[in-house]
């Protein structure tokens, strides 16, 4: 019963910033897109900072 409650609660958990960044990087199509996305994260554009 407790495991069902954990599964239910996990569906409403907000992903961490690291998880969002990794998901964004994993969606890259090739090495050039990966490098571009990596630079965006390093420069803070992904987090909304400029």
Tell me about this structure:
- InterPro entries: DUF3563.
- This is DUF3563 domain-containing protein.
- Pfam families: DUF3563.
- By secondary structure, the chain is mainly alpha-helical.
- The chain has one domain (8-49).
- It is 64% helix and 0% strand.
- It is built from three helices and no strands.
- It has helices at 2-10, 17-26, 31-43.
- The longest helix is centred in the last third of the chain and has 13 residues, at 31-43.
- It is elongated.
Features of the shown structure:
0% strand, 50 residues, mainly alpha, elongated, single chain, 3 helices
Task: Note the topology.
Layout (H helix, E strand, L loop, with lengths): L1 H9 L6 H10 L4 H13 L7
Helix pairs in contact: 2-3
Pfam family, one: DUF3563
Organism: Pseudohoeflea suaedae
InterPro entries: DUF3563
Number of helices: 3
Q: Order of helices and strands, N to C?
A: HHH
**Portion in beta strands:** under 5%
Please estimate the helix content. Answer: 55-70%
Measured between the Cα atoms of the first and last residue, the distance is: 46 Å
Assign an overall shape: elongated
User: How many separate domains make up the residues?
Assistant: 1
User: Residue ranges: pLDDT <50 for 5 or more in a row?
Assistant: none
Please state the CA-atom Rg, rounded to the nearest Å.
15 Å
Pfam families: DUF3563
Protein name: DUF3563 domain-containing protein
Organism: Pseudohoeflea suaedae
């Amino acid at each position: 019963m407790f495991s069902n409650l954990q599964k239910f609660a996990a569906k409403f958990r907000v992903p961490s910033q690291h998880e969002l960044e990794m998901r964004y990087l994993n969606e890259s199509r090739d090495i050039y897109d990966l490098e571009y996305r990596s630079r965006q994260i390093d420069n803070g554009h992904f987090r909304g900072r400029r």
